Task: inverse folding
């Protein structure tokens, strides 16, 4: 009796593991497809739509690996903040000629019009369905909650053995910031001309 | 973090602190001379700290799990700082041409040095990757620094894309290695080391290979060298010097640290006897290809920067020989050879780029060919002497540092019985003589002096510059005649 019960639970566990792996690979495949669409797309805004979906798929991957904290960070930081920055930057620079040429006509109700949002929303819907299934299915939940990596553990690691890595990462961000500033600043107007002459004099004396 | 740990990474801390202070300095007053002086001071302080550390450090010191400070890394960091001092001094000659105040250049320079320092001290894939990225990102900013020049966008974009590719290869490799070893530290063996199943060892091999491809991109080894000449040519001369010295030294030292701390290194040749996937074989192929391809492609080059780019590919190929050790006893010899060869390479490269920058300022021409150095010996003896000493050292003629370096490499190769590598080294050096001697012949050529007189202003050097040129010549000659001065330092490590 007990023997059959353990074998049953083992079979259950095996099935949970398998479905978990299947779901993981499915989400990973969605991420790859979406990323490919990002780099092959002709229109920047459409590519961004796929990029959001790709990052969401990676977040689902993290969740299915039992790291809900990393998944949350992925959604908040990448799909949230950074994508909003991207959209802002693209809107502010103004869409170039090639963007508007590739853009759909506003008044045309054709099949090609649907195509633009159909792909990303299909992938997003698939991800949502998968996530609902994962949360709803008790076997998967049991597997997922058995070894959760909490924010506390991540924090302890970051401020313990990996303290120097955090510091180095901050310098890495500084390097990116300074290099980006240098490339983005307008030609030769870092200082006014009068200021510049004064600077040269004072610089020469100091 | 104990006080002792903080003390042993003090050179890195000085550079890091210097970056923050220079940001504050910019907020206070934007002056190029001030920030230059401050940057150089920081480098000198870090160098002094490294030297004192090198004298006091008897054993390798583990600083958290991320870094391991040993004397090899310390010496490499001193080399990096010396090269960066030269870059800082040379860049002033070039930066005065433009109108802006170039604060960012010096901050990026310090960031490059910090990244290189982290690389040479790292003992963990996390710190390796962060240092690698810090080095790359800061270098991308510097490669495209002069935005008005013709190639700046092209070369910095090439460098950005290719170093991103290299780091993604490297990350995948690190992930594969982690999946088999369960730890990100360099010195970890496979999880199931006693029962190595073929699949597991295949994954580990693939991981190591992908990691090595990422490193090879940075070292511009032969199948991954295509970016090198274009980026060398497009970057400002002082930045090219930085690429040729600091980036290469740091990457090579971290490669050696990774390679020699693999516990399976010395078992590997026996286990995978006849296995073509052996990383040893791959490294030999990289080395032989780099020596032959680099030297052959350099033959027809007229542009000095492109020529030096191809010759640097060949030199990195020669250096790979030191990885071919078969027993733990020869690791020490391998380290000594590598550090000596790197010092010779850095000294020669710094000398050549110094002459390049000085003659470039004079002729107002950003694309110098070998012909532009024609008759330099009759115009300016000290510069010509510097070129001669440096070129002879790169070619490996006796009585120069390069010869002793090559001798060390041959020694390592003989111990490891790598006959193919020795053959490639000799053939490569033979080919290299053709273009190296071509440079020297050009220096003595008198035929074109009369034609050039029209657009050639006579070279006038400031006394300080002249003094540093003479010092470099003296260094080159002295270390070539008395290599014990340097090798004595390594013996105490």
Result:
């Amino acid at each position: 009796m007990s023997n059959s019960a353990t074998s049953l639970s083992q079979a259950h566990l095996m099935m949970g593991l398998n479905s978990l792996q299947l779901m993981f690979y499915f989400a990973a495949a969605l991420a790859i497809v979406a990323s490919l669409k990002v780099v092959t797309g002709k229109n920047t805004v459409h590519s961004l739509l796929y990029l959001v979906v790709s990052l969401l798929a990676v977040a689902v991957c993290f969740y299915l690996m039992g790291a809900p904290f990393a998944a949350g960070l992925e959604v908040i930081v990448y799909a949230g903040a950074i994508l909003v920055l991207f959209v802002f930057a693209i809107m502010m620079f103004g869409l170039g000629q090639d963007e508007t040429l590739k853009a759909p006509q506003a008044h045309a109700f054709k099949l090609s019009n649907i195509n633009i949002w159909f792909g990303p929303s299909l992938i997003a819907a698939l991800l949502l369905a998968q996530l609902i299934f994962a949360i709803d299915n008790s076997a998967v939940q049991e597997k997922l909650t058995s070894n959760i990596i909490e924010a506390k553990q991540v924090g302890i690691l970051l401020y313990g053995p990996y303290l120097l890595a955090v510091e180095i990462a901050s310098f890495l961000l500084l390097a990116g910031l300074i290099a980006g500033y240098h490339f983005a600043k307008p030609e030769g107007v870092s200082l006014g001309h009068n200021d510049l002459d004064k600077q040269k004099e004072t610089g020469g004396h100091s | 973090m104990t006080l002792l740990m903080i003390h042993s990474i003090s050179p890195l801390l000085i550079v890091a602190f210097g970056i923050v202070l220079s940001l504050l300095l910019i907020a206070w007053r934007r002056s190029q001379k001030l920030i230059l002086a401050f940057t150089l001071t920081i480098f000198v302080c870090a160098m002094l700290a490294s030297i004192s550390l090198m004298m006091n450090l008897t054993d390798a010191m583990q600083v958290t799990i991320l870094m391991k400070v040993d004397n090899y890394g310390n010496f490499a960091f001193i080399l990096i700082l010396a090269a960066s001092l030269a870059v800082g001094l040379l860049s002033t000659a070039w930066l005065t041409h433009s109108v802006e105040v170039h604060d960012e250049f010096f901050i990026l320079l310090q960031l490059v040095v910090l990244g290189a320092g982290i690389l040479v001290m790292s003992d963990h894939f996390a710190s390796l990757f962060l240092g690698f990225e810090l080095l790359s990102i800061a270098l991308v900013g510097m490669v495209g620094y002069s935005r008005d020049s013709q190639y700046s966008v092209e070369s910095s974009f090439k460098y950005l894309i290719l170093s991103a590719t290299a780091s993604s290869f490297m990350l995948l490799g690190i992930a594969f290695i982690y999946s088999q070893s369960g730890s990100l530290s360099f010195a970890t063996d496979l999880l199931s080391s006693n029962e190595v199943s073929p699949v597991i060892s295949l994954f580990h091999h693939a991981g190591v290979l992908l990691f090595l491809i990422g490193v090879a991109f940075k070292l511009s080894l032969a199948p991954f060298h295509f970016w090198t000449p274009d980026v060398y040519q497009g970057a400002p001369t002082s930045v090219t010097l930085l690429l040729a010295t600091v980036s290469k030294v740091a990457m090579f030292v971290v490669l050696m640290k990774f390679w020699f701390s693999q516990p399976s290194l010395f078992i590997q040749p026996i286990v995978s006897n006849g296995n073509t996937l052996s990383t040893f074989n791959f490294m030999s192929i990289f080395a032989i290809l780099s020596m032959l391809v680099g030297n052959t492609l350099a033959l027809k080059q007229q542009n000095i920067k492109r020529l030096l780019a191809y010759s640097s590919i060949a030199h990195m190929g020669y250096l790979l020989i030191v990885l071919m050790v078969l027993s733990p006893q020869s690791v020490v010899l391998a380290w000594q050879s590598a550090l000596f060869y790197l010092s010779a390479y850095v000294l020669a490269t710094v000398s050549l780029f110094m002459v390049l920058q000085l003659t470039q300022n004079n002729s107002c021409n950003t694309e110098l060919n070998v012909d532009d150095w024609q008759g330099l010996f009759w115009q300016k003896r000290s510069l010509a002497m510097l070129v001669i000493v440096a070129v002879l050292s790169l070619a490996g003629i006796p009585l120069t540092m390069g010869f002793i370096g090559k001798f060390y490499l041959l020694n390592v190769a003989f111990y490891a019985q790598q006959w193919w590598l020795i053959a490639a080294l000799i053939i490569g050096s033979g080919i290299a003589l053709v273009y190296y001697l071509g440079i020297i012949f050009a220096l003595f050529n008198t035929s074109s002096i009369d034609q050039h007189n029209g657009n050639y202003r006579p070279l006038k050097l400031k006394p300080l510059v002249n003094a540093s040129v003479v010092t470099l010549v003296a260094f080159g000659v002295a270390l070539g005649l008395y290599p014990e001065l340097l090798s004595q330092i390594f013996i105490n490590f």
